[in-house]
Amino acid sequence: MMPILSRPVTLCLLRGAIALTSGCVVLLAGCASYPGAIAPGMTHDELIARFGVPASERHRGDDWTVVYTTEPAGQQAFQAQLDVSGRVVSVVQVLDSWAFAKVVPQQWTHEDVLAAFGPPTEKRRLSGMECWDYHYKQDASFDASMSIFFDDAGRVVRLENGPDFSRDRPIK
Question: Which domain holds residue 114?
Answer without folding.
Answer: 32-167
